[in-house]
Sequence to fold (275 residues):
Amino acid sequence: MKKYLITFLFPSLFILNSCADILSDNEENYIIQDLPQHFPLDKDYAWVYERTYYSNKELWESELNPDTTFLDTLFVTQTENDFSYYWWGQNPYSVSLVKNHSDENHFIRIGRYYIQLDSIVSYEKPDLWANFNPNFDTTGYSAIYSSFAPTRYSTKDTMQNIIAHSFIEIKNEFHEDYEYYVKSEKNLFGSESWKYYRDYYDDNNEYFGMAKKQSEINDSSTNIGLIKLKIHDRLNRFSKLHDDFRMLQVYSMDAKKIAGKYENDLMQKIFDEDY
Fold:
């Protein structure tokens, strides 16, 4: 028996080594997309996503029998300031003010402008929307950020002749009246997808959704310029009331009071924009 084992073992090792050599050679023919170091804010962008919603958590987990599916557009535009505008849809309810914190490789939201209320919320502590730092350590983040993902890992996908590396971040928060969960994937081209839910304890106002990027579109084919001009004009009007473009100091604890003036369906839209 030992003789036969040795006889078959060496050919097996030879085959395994040969396969490894072939895989190594093949990788040289792939286009490698490295892990991202920041969120793309270098120009104006418009990305189309498919949003899908489910009636309960079980269907959401299995991704079966969605209630609603539709296309939505994420717009990101540059400004003359050190932040960019970030919003969903061609008739946005609110616009997030975002920037890359280059020293830390962090993508953060520093505030939000509610269009219909004509009110600006400047966050005392920003939201950490993405952590691209190669050394992942969230120690002390609670003192710096209002929210952040405490868990992250990297993944690799092979598509035709491309090997794409991505970060996966997971956040699961338990609030007084609801549980919130989001799992997001980000690569060199921004947000690729996310899966999330907001499950309220005492009523049926919960929702379970996901979003997946479909394509990038030419922003000239949208009304992005008109929206950007409208937002910029309103923000400039605030700047005349506050020196050196200091935003109205309504901190994150007051954000719910402002948003609370909206109807329930509008609140749903606002929560959906938190990605």
